[in-house]
Amino acid sequence: MIRYLAKRLSYYAVLLVVAVFLAYALSCTALGPRAYFEAKQPRPSAAAVDRQLTALNINDRTPVVERFATWADGLVFHADLGRTIHNTSVNEEFGRRIWVSLRLLLIGSLLGMALGVAGGAWSAVKQYRISDRTLTVFSFVLLSTPVFLVALLLKNGAIAAKNAAGHEVIPFTGYETPNLAGGLGAHLGDWALHLLLPTLSLALGGLATYSRYQRSTMLDVLGSDYLRTAEAKGLTRTRALLKHGLRTAVIPMSTMFAYSFLGIFTGAAFTETIFGWHGMGEWFIQAINEQDINAVVAVNLFAAVVILAAGFLADALHAALDPRVRY
Amino acid sequence: MTPAPVTPAPPLTEPPFTEPLLAVRDLRVDFGPAPAVRGVDLELHRGETLGIVGESGSGKSVTALAVLGLLPGTARIGGSVRLEGRELVGLPGRELARIHGRKVAMVFQDPLSAFTPVYRIGDQIAEALRIHQPLDRAAARGRAAELLDLVGIPAPGRALDSFPHEFSGGMRQRAMIAMAIANDPDILLADEPTTALDVTIQAQVLEVLRTAQRETGAALVLVSHDLGVIAGMADRVAVMYAGRVVETAPVDDLFARPRHPYTLGLIGAAPRLDGRGGPLVPIPGNPPAPGEGGPGCPFAPRCPLAEGRCRTAEPPLAGAGAHLAACVRADELAERGPAPSEVYPVPELPAPADPGPREGRAQVLAVTGLTKTFPQLKGAVFKRKVGEVYAVDGVDLDIRRGETLGLVGESGSGKSTTLYELLRLAAPQAGRIELLGQDTARLDPAAAHRLRGRLQIVFQDPMASLDPRMPVGDIVAEPLHAQAVPREEAARRVPALLRQVGLEAAHADRYPHQFSGGQRQRISIARALAVRPDLLVLDEPVSALDVSIQAGVLNLLQRLKAELGLAYLFVSHDLSVIRHLADRVSVMYLGRTVETGAVAEVFERPRHPYTRALLSAVPLPDPAAERARTKVLLAGDPPSPTVRRQGCRFRARCPVYAALDAGRRTRCEQEEPQAAEAAPGVDHTAACHHPEGR
Amino acid sequence: MTTTVLTDTVPVPAGDPAPSGRLRLVLARLTAARGVLVGAAIVLLLFLLAFLGPYLTPWDYATPNYTAIRQPPSAEHWFGTNGIGQDVFAQTVRGLQKSLVIGLLVALFSTVLASLVGACAGYFGGWTDRALMFLVDLMLIFPSFLIIAIVSPKLRGTGWLAFVLLLGLFNWMITARVVRSMTLSLKEREFVRAASFMGVRPFRIILRHILPNVSSFLIIDATITVGGAVMSEAALSYFGFGVRAPDVSLGTLLAAGTGDAPVFPWLFYFAAALLVLFVLAVNLIGDGLRDALDPTADAGRPARTARRPRRRNP
Q1: Is the dihedral of CA B497, B500, B501, B506 positive or negative?
Q2: How far apart, in Å, are the Cα atoms of B381 and each of B540, C78, C121, C228?
Q3: What span, in angstroms and rounded, lies between the C-alpha atoms of B597 and B405?
């Protein structure tokens, strides 16, 4: 199993290198930092623009491969992601924002998965009863609502609540109240409250996806021979379902986790922007509009690493759950 | 048991005047509108074995599951099932759970899917124990090991920690039986327990079932489609057709004097290992689908004895003593005792034109020393090579024009690999394949493509071998298109082809799912015949079919061979079918040909100990003969084909080797036996150092 | 001489010619599933609304009217007007039209691409398979949103068709994987083996045997992709990376209305509701089709094969 995972990991490393190069090349060709500088008032001289571009290693007159080599050299040997278009350190910005994003991603995706698996399994067992139908309708509506719209609706709800109550009931901007007095407890409470709406926008999506999928794998399991065997041994239906059915039906969820993480990542980028979190997603959207190549590439790197990590986690989870792939 | 008591033993004809252990009365099951079981009455007494026999769709498995209350929620169950006088139908789940496993235990057909894949075998058996007995973890584990030992699993301590997928089919079924007898149940229900297994493994598992029954004193209900298995195991038999019991009797009585025409037909349709009959007796038509059919006897449309009254009312199960039959002409049959062929129309097969002496005929296929190894892969996603699988390692085949070679072997013997190597029409890894005089190693692509038209295949599974999205006409014409026959020409030939295999030209527009299994297999045959091949490869062509349907297809194959002068390479695990159809037979073990020869020679005077064991493992549909036989039980599973052994590869399971003294064993251990003729001029060779004398 | 043979010829169920057998089964299952009917009705109505709507209102979606700014819905302006007096109904209908067309085209494009790549990878195996699957893995590393957003500055002025291509180009990978694994198992099925042993050429096998047998899945998947593409379009346009003025789509309408939503709800909620309604209807159809088309599905039970893990689209 260790060998299997190690092999998987090395494959991911290859993918990562190729993908990051492609992302770099794509950003270099698609974005035009030269135009950004040329649009400055007063208009700098061509030579000055050139100088500045070269200093930032984003000069479009240098071949892409050469620029990539410089960038990769900095990354590999100095752990340096380069400079932003404002000539600040990408590393610093990256370090500030990464925790904001990870907090949202981790809590959102895990919560969504846990709720979804539980809901789906329950729904399958109660197939065609009221509770199943309610959850089905609920997840269908959620599946049909884009994450950014869920986030907007939640935010509008919070605004409406604020207008009705006359003060902010649930915070809907930022991840903490600035200059909050009080001890650790107050801070933690404040964080949790700020986390509520953004996490909910992500977790609701997860809940909908996982519960549909878990419901259908669970329904497949309901007709399986081994569940019949478990009952023939003398387990009651419920015990057989929980011990033999659910345990087998969660195996495909690991694959699901890898796939759904792509969507969650994108959703997180929107959520951050909408709730005014200064995370990676918000940075990305801002960077594109500023033609900031190095920042864009840094976010891409982050995305690739996070998604591959999710993939690796899914593989490990699969191997742990299913003895048939454990070799 | 004493062999062949002609009159049934008293306790069977007159059941003791005690309450039966299990009494099923008027059991009815339906899924939605269509009834699957329509009023079944059964009785089971302590310690006896009841065989339930029937073809697919007869409701036998549903009956077994209904008795246990294990049907899915969509099933509606009516009637009564009493266990020691206690009504089970309608019992709440919690109460039923207390009975499951402790009073009534079940052995399922497919042991791979019947174990939860993610738990260890030992844990699953221990769980069965701890549900009903106050055992701690360690005690349950110890008991589980004892149970595994009882059913003959080697190294039970280690086996406890195995996952189901690490076991072979036979081992899994043994473990299943161990789990079923864990709580000393009063009743063991076995639903087709050996259907997925090879004959030698089937013989082992049946033996284990007997042991289990002896150890626990449980009554056994054995559900099977195989008359041979029933004949060898059951004390009493119930024959089911279309959701009802149509005949029930003590086993000897049933086989000797069947009183229902359906039973008679079943017996006549099964090819027998012990005699080469002419044409088999097929039961015409197909069983009715659930919910189909009029008010009369459901068998009437297929029955050669049907009269007007059969079509108006369904006869009840009636008769004197223990032999009951649901047929208005049962008494007549009992009195007359006709042979199947006297009741059913027997097709006349055209006599094959005498092909002349074998040496004089053209060779269609000649294979010598064929070898095929696969890399042995591990890992689900990232496969890595960890060794070699010697799937085929020295196969010789020889087919002349107009003859049928039966290729016999158990799963893993390399039969399928051999076939696919032939059909690839490319150079083999080692050895030589000569098809119609052409060496496949030297074919250019165009010649190979042309040669494909002269070699066709019919697969085992008639569902899988026809594209469900294509109309039958296109399916049959496909090889013609592949050989670039003009479209009109192909379209013209399709109706004739369909008629040739017993279908109608109008069927060309229909899709495969509209046909029954036997008809689909006929479509497959028509497709294979389309390009007028010289050699037809038949890969288990009838093993997915019910006996009564199988007989019709076998007769068709015999007729086509006689009419068209085809040569067949007939692969089967069923020795009775081979005996019935083949001219010559070739037996494979672990990738190698061990015995070859004319069918009569090999079946009547087998020389290789493996062939002898194989023949003795095939159950005969004749209880008396079955009891009288001495059986050669092989030990264990076939060894792994990943190791290339020195010497004879059969010796680990060989009863002859086991009986040899050390001096004579050396040869088996060191020298690979080569095929040797039994006698000069006799078509019979065996690769054994100590063959059975003539 | 062929008594045996002839006796077996009768019992093919008499009745309809072949194709209706399966078709009728599918139709019966479809009509049994109310969700599909409801979904199909909604989709039909929305299409009618999108393409006939512009003729129902005298207002043009682009013309500003400074005398009627931010008016609430009324008999004259059914969905009200926006900040420069444009009629919101005309705009919404126009946006819906664009979103629907984009959704359909993306689904078509990505399904065709996915089925070809998947079937080739699965059927040919070996290096073809490895190369194609590497490509799939590579493209799955980044959320398509990132790539499309990066490329979007280049697309200024090329119009929305390029955007459709991009959306399609980053939406086929998971489907291709499923098609590949289905092809792998179909390849082992005996009818495909039979065809190759008969000498049928590989591409013909893919076209005649493989693709028809994954068509159920493809139809279902394409249906769901329509909904997904509409959502992706809305999200990208919302953040300014998709459809741009002078074109309008549901996404651009949502973006324009979002700031005013708490005070002038008609600027936001009509577009939002239509978006959710359409995707919901499409998902209902997809789900119902899955139960009806999947040959392995029992009458009541949902399918067990190849259930594509459905991705949350942004």
Answers
A1: positive
A2: 32, 57, 15, 29
A3: 9
| Number of independent structural domains in chain C | 1
* C300 part of a folded domain: no
pLDDT digits (tens, 9 = 90+) for B331-347: 888 888 888 888 888 87
Burial class (CB in 10 A: 0-12, 13-18, 19+), B357: exposed
User: What are the pLDDT digits (tens) for B142-192?
Assistant: 999 999 998 888 888 889 999 998 888 888 999 999 999 999 999 999 999
Instruction: Answer yes or no: are the C-beta atoms of C236 and C149 closer than 8 Å.
Output: yes
Q: Is B571:B586 a contact under the CB 8 Å cutoff?
A: no
Q: Which residues of B touch A (CB under 8 A)?
A: 65, 68, 70, 72, 93-94, 97-102, 105-106, 108, 110, 113-119, 127-128, 131-132, 163, 165, 176, 179, 183, 378-382, 384
In sequence order, which residues have a C-beta less than 8 Å from that of residue B55 and are 6 or more positions away? B225, B241, B266, B287, B546, B547, B548
Nearest Cα residue to B278 out of B346, B332, B180, B364: B346
Can you give the CATH number for the domain in which C78 is found? 1.10.3720.10
Q: Dump pLDDT digits (tens) for C134-169.
A: 999 999 888 888 888 888 877 777 778 888 898 999
- Residue B380's pLDDT band, with cuts at 50, 70 and 90, is very low
Q: Could you tell me the two tokens for C301?
A: 């039970």
Residue C15 lies inside a defined structural domain of this protein: no
Cα–Cα distance measured from residue C309 to residue B304, given in angstroms and rounded to the nearest whole number: 55
Distance from CA of B45 to the nearest CA of A (A): 21
Is C89 part of any domain?
yes
Angle between helices B137-150 and B199-216 (to 10 degrees): 120
Domains of chain B (ranges, CATH numbers): 361-378+387-606 (3.40.50.300)
> What is the DSSP pairing of strand B22-31 with strand B75-83?
antiparallel
Closest to A225 (Cβ–Cβ): which among B99, B110, B378?
Answer: B110
**Total-model pTM:** 0.82
Tell me the pLDDT band of C72, cut-offs 50, 70 and 90: confident
Domain span at residue C242?
26-293
- Give pLDDT, residue B2: 40
